[in-house]
């Protein structure tokens, strides 16, 4: 009897761009698009996976050993640069190829990082709120909403990958000095990026702004804890557009209340989407955005396409046994 040849099946958890989804259909895949409005737990993914060989997920889905050990699953494509929601060790053990979307979100994320740096330094959200509440009564030399200078300040970048470097380029253009910390000094930085490698403690002690751009791993979890915050200068600001758990949020809340650092601008949160109540309440020198580093229409569309292209390539390279 001739075996029935089945089209490779792919499960898509949450909505992606239609044009990217259509690409999978054109490539002959059987696409089950759950378009779930909420992230899926690993049990929910397993229940829906059936015999799918590929999974398209997002950073809020949990892709653990339970998912990765499902027979037949060969490729996981995440529509994100970060992969901390995927158990990469389990993927390796079970031979599941993982693809992600680096590069395409570098500039958008660096832009938002800089927007946050400027917003918190120049107190833009506070100024906006002041006007809307009717509290602006004209220019005063001794204004209450004094900000911090950016030109001439030192920016400490923790994690000097693509996004860290893109933030470094912006900082240099704004007249800042740049320090960076990564596991090892990088020998491949472009010459025009005048950034000096420093141990984390030196970077924290010497920077006026500290910006986090490291992936979330066991080593970087709570890299900014009470001890690290105590090393920062009282006039310094902390910016995070990478992953929330890099910061011990309770320690940050305490440091802000005690005035151990001047302020924080955060796009990501330790227990996302929940935000520490002190950070929520505090509007003075605290700026919050909703995990929006890559949130430009073009970047997000490119992410969907890059994930799908990677998935198609990986499936083609690993035909079903
Ligand atoms: C990513 O892709 O990891 C980003 O956090 C999404 O903005």
UniProtKB/TrEMBL annotation:
Residues 10-319 form the D-isomer specific 2-hydroxyacid dehydrogenase catalytic domain. CDD domains: GDH. Gene3D superfamilies: NAD(P)-binding Rossmann-like Domain. It comes from the Bacteria. The keyword Transmembrane helix does not apply. Keywords: NAD, Oxidoreductase. Residues 114-293 form the D-isomer specific 2-hydroxyacid dehydrogenase NAD-binding domain. InterPro entries: D-isomer_2-hydroxyacid_DH (IPR050223), D-isomer_2_OHA_DH_cat_dom (IPR006139), D-isomer_DH_CS (IPR029753), D-isomer_DH_CS1 (IPR029752), D-isomer_DH_NAD-bd (IPR006140), NAD(P)-bd_dom_sf (IPR036291). GO terms for molecular function: glyoxylate reductase (NADPH) activity; hydroxypyruvate reductase [NAD(P)H] activity; NAD binding. Pfam families: 2-Hacid_dh, 2-Hacid_dh_C. GO terms for cellular component: cytosol. Belongs to the D-isomer specific 2-hydroxyacid dehydrogenase family. PANTHER family: 2-HYDROXYACID DEHYDROGENASE-RELATED, GLYOXYLATE_HYDROXYPYRUVATE REDUCTASE B. This is D-glycerate dehydrogenase. It comes from Actinospica acidithermotolerans.
């Amino acid at each position: 009897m001739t075996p029935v040849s089945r089209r490779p099946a792919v499960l898509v958890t949450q909505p992606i761009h239609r044009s990217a989804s259509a690409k999978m259909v054109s490539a002959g895949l059987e696409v089950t698009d759950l378009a779930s409005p909420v992230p899926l737990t690993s049990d929910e993914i397993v229940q829906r996976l059936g015999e799918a060989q590929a999974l398209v997920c997002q950073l809020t889905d949990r892709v653990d050993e339970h998912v990765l050990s499902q027979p037949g699953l060969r490729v996981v494509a995440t529509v994100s640069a970060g992969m901390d929601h995927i158990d990469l060790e389990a993927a390796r053990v079970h031979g599941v190829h993982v693809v992600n979307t680096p590069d395409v979100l570098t500039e958008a994320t660096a832009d938002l990082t800089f927007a946050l740096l400027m917003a918190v330094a120049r107190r833009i959200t506070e100024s906006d709120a002041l006007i809307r509440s009717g509290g602006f009564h004209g220019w005063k030399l001794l204004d209450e909403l004094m900000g911090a200078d950016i030109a001439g300040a030192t920016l400490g970048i923790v994690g000097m990958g693509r996004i860290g470097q893109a933030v470094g380029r912006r900082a240099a253009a704004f007249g800042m000095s740049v320090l960076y910390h990564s596991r090892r000094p990088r020998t491949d930085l472009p010459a025009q990026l005048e950034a000096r490698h420093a141990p984390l403690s030196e970077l924290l002690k010497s920077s006026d702004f500290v910006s986090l751009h490291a992936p979330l791993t066991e080593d970087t979890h709570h890299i900014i804890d009470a001890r690290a915050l105590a090393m920062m200068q009282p006039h310094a600001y902390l910016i995070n557009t990478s992953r929330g758990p890099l910061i011990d949020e309770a320690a940050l809340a305490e440091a802000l209340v005690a005035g151990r650092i001047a302020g924080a601008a955060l796009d990501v949160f330790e227990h996302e989407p929940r935000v520490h109540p002190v950070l929520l309440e505090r509007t003075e020198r605290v700026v919050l955005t909703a995990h929006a580093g890559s949130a430009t229409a073009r970047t997000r569309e490119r992410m969907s396409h890059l994930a799908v292209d990677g998935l198609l390539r990986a499936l083609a390279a690993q035909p079903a046994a």
